[in-house]
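Shipment paperwork, digital attachment
Item: protein structure file
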Amino acid sequence: MLFFTFLRFQIIIFVIIYFATTDTRFVPDSDAKRTIINPFTDNDQKLFVTLANYRHRFERSMNFKKLRWTLSSLNSSALCDACNLLVPEMRVLIRINRSDLIDNVAIEFCKFYKLLDRNVCLGAVNEYKNAVIEVLALSPLTNKELCSLAFECAAPPYFPVVNWNVTFPDKPKPTPQPPQPPASGSPKLNILHLSDTHVDFAYKPGSQADCSQPLCCRQGQPAPGHAGAGFWGDYRNCDIPYWTAEAILKYAAELEEVDFIYYTGDIPAHNVWNQSRSDQIYAINAINRMLGSIFPNKTFYSAVGNHETAPCNLYPTPNIKTDNISWLYEALADSWIKLGLPEDTRESIERGGFYTTLIRPNLRIISLNMNYCSRENFWLLINATDPLGQLQWLIQWLQYAEDHEEKVHIIGHHPPRSCMAAFSWNFNKIVNRYENTIAGQFYGHTHVDEFLMFYDETDRNRPVSMAYMGPSLTTSSYLNPGYRVYSVDGDYAGSSFWALDHRTVIMNLTASNMYNKTIFIDEYDARDAYGLKYLFPSDWNDLIQRLKSDLDGPLMGLAYQFYTKSYQNGSQCDHQCRRGLLCNFITARGNDPHACDSIPSFLS
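Attachment content:
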């Protein structure tokens, strides 16, 4: 009986590890071909192991992204079958007060299963087991609904129980007024965009960069024939050392003339299996002190990332009585106010990690906590309906801005397309309603260089808004570090506050390590590189049409090169890869099955 229980609950741990290692590592193809004992087919076993092990590091891999774009779906039937099989059994154990069995089997599995680093596995189980068990106990979702949301096992829009709608004020939408080019010589603002620093305080030059843990370049000697971690950083599965982040920021402070800074989250490193609250507070305070010292006279407008909390991704909502997030929000409020936010933002930050304030007399910033829309935040499986009323709060402030003739910039960490479907589709409605007010959106999280189009919900050919995902400072994984500067219309009476151009700067990591000094490159200016008049939605839509008409041409290849921050070039992205990347650019709503219907189909 014990053996039978152990055998069946081996697969439970894959479900837990899949959740818990959203921010983990890539598995080499040789390891992914190994199998485990379970009731699935050989093909399912291989894909199951590949997807379940160290998911984040896998998803950061350029090869994985190209594979994902090549296939219409990478949802594993094995994952869905395992979830549908085991969630009912786990709920039974919880109901009869035997959740300890889940814990014991998880620990034994970590000791037994060799594809996962034992310390990482045990750490992940310890970090996430209580949340997983509580979600299973408290979620009103059926077993099928839980599995569908967790692993996208059902086609959108999933189930009515998880759908919800925001409400709008009883005021008609004004006639759309697309932004117009400014008069020659009009004033401009320069905005520095920083994101995803992921500084690793334990980084060790010369250490093992190809390791069995989610985060490498911290310990051990490289295997024979393998280079050790570079001094300034490493393209492999490593974050950047403190001194590299400091050098990049000092370069930006000395070279760039900026008016203020958007900072879209993710400060701690990717060692998510053994982080504590004190670790996160230390990282946040240390990096924000560095930012304040390097940019002493600049105001930072920050957003909270998924890595700021511990355990990673878990942002409890007020209905969760066994956990709270006040420790983080209080620390962020203190830190962000020291970086220039007014004191009157404190109440909102401490309540939910979001806030609004005026940057200039007619320019308002709204910083959203996008962790309350993320699929990786398990707590939302208990109740995902507009957590903390954040979207209704957003509507109220956008209506206020419209009434007072203000323009709004929205910042956040997760881009809207990575949100749970109901949140993402409601957010899209909001952007459509307030298209005259929203003058720009700025996000992070993906680490790569992307832009995101929003289209009219009725006329899918009419662009209404733009979002930018800023490049990361971290190299994780297979990326050059980078930052971006936007040139924005303003500040003067009647200015649109739309971005007119942007310039991306990267540190050439290969050259920096080779010559033992930082080497920076102005990678590209958007208008010049893409042949744009300005950076208005109509200009980006014109680019989209040109890319659609010549997917295999040099311009789409250039877009892929910039996407990787010049780690790769267009020759390394085939037709299917290019179609997938272009699909990313025009998919603003999560789980939108028809977002990319207008792109030329795959080659046979």
